[in-house]
Amino acid sequence: MVWIHGGGFTGGSGSGPGSAGDAFAKQGVILTTINYRLGRLGHFAHPALSTEHPEEPKGSYAYMDQIAALRWIKENIAAFGGDPANVTIFGFSAGGVSVHSLLTIPAAKGLFHKAISESGGGRDGVLTGRPISKENADPLYPVSAETIGIAFARKHKIEGTNAAALAKLRSLNVEQIVDGGQEADSAGQRIYSGPILDGKLVIETAESAYKAGRQANVPLIIGNSSAEIGGAFVSNASTKEALFANFGDLEAEAKAAFDPEGDKAFAEVLTKFNTDWVWGEPARMTARAFVAKRAPTYMFQFGYVPAANRQRSPYGAGHGSEVSFVFNTLNARWGASAEATPEEKELAKIMNTYWANFAKTGNPNGKGLPVWTLYDNQKEEILDIELDGKAVVKPDPRKARFNVIEKAFKKRERLQLRGGI
Description:
Layout: E1 2-4, H1 22-26, E2 32-34, H2 39-42, H3 47-51, H4 61-76, E3 88-92, H5 94-104, E4 114-118, E5 130-131, H6 145-155, H7 163-170, H8 174-178, E6 196-197, H9 206-212, E7 220-225, H10 240-245, H11 251-258, H12 266-292, E8 297-302, H13 323-326, H14 342-361, E9 381-385, E10 391-395, H15 399-417
Parallel strand pairs: 1-2, 1-3, 3-4, 4-7, 5-6, 7-8, 8-9
Antiparallel strand pairs: 9-10
C-alpha cells in the first residue's frame, strides 16, 4: 500500500506517527509512505520555463514525484517482500486528489492496481488542474498558471518572460521560493497555482476522464467525512435563504433536501452543503463512473465524533477524522488527550482491516466484519460510520442532497457551454 499524504499541496509529510504502518504490517501489508514536492516546488509555471525544452512536461512536479515513487516501488518493492503486481494507492485530501489524478494521468498507467480516495473530491474546481497558459480557458480557473508564475516573479522584482528572467528565478533561494507558504501577495494577487494542466503529463482533469471512461479500470474505495468543513468555503451566503437562492430554479428542491422541516441551523445547512458540494456528490459521481466500467467499487461516509467533542462538532466528523482509524493509530490523533475507548479501538480495527483486505484482494470484506456491499447505481448502498461509531451498510442517506447538487453541477456546465457563469 502506498500512502499519499494530504495538506493542500502546500504542506504535510509522509512521515509521522499518524501514518505509521505498524497495524498494516500486522495484517500482512507492506506500507510505503512517500513525500512529494509542495507549494511552488511542486506546482509552478512561467512562460520562460515553458519555452525551455518545450517537449518536456511542465508544471505539476508533485505528480512527477509521485509517479517516480510508484516506478521505484514497481522496480524495487520485491526486495522488501512486496508484490509489484499488487500495489494499492491511497490518500487523503490533497492525497485523495492525487489518487484521482494518478487514475487519469497516462504516465501512471500500470503502476498500481487498486485505489482509495479519502476526501479527494472528484469534480472540477477544487485542486483539479489549472490551464498552464490560456487565460479564461476554464471558468473555474480564469487565470493561467503562467500568469500566476509571472506574478510571483514580479514580487521578487523579476520582470520579463525570457531566458534572463528564468535565470533570475533560478537564483532565488529555497526560502524565497517557499515564501512562507504564501499563496497570494500583499495585494491579494495569486502567486501559487496549485495543480496544473500542462497537456503532456496532466492532459485532462479527473472529471473529464471519468465522463469519457478513460480512467484506470481498477477496484476503488471512495468516500469522505460527514461534516468536512463549515464556513464560507463554497458559498459566501450569510443566511439559509441566501444559500438556497443560489440554487435558482432548484431552490425548492434544495430546501427540501437540506432543510425539509425548515428548522435546521444555518451553520448545519452550510456545513452539509459545503461537504456535499466539494466531497460527497463528487465521490458519488466518481463511484458511478467506476461502476460503469464494471470496476468493483465501494463507497463510505465517516461520521464518528468522540462523545467529548460532539458539542464542539455537532454536525458530524471533520476533515481527516477517519485517517487515524484507517491506520489504527488512535493515540497519535491531533489533540488526543485520553486513551482510546474500547469502541474506538474496535472501529479502528474494523477500518484498518477493511483497507488491508481491499489492498490484498480488491474486496474489503472478511471474517468478523459487517458486510460492505458493492456500490451500484440502483441500491446506492454505502458503509456509513455513524455518529456513535457503529459501522452500518445502508442506502446512502445523502441521496436527496446529492441529487440536487448534481442538477446544480449540470446547470453550471450548461452555463459554461454558453460562455461562462
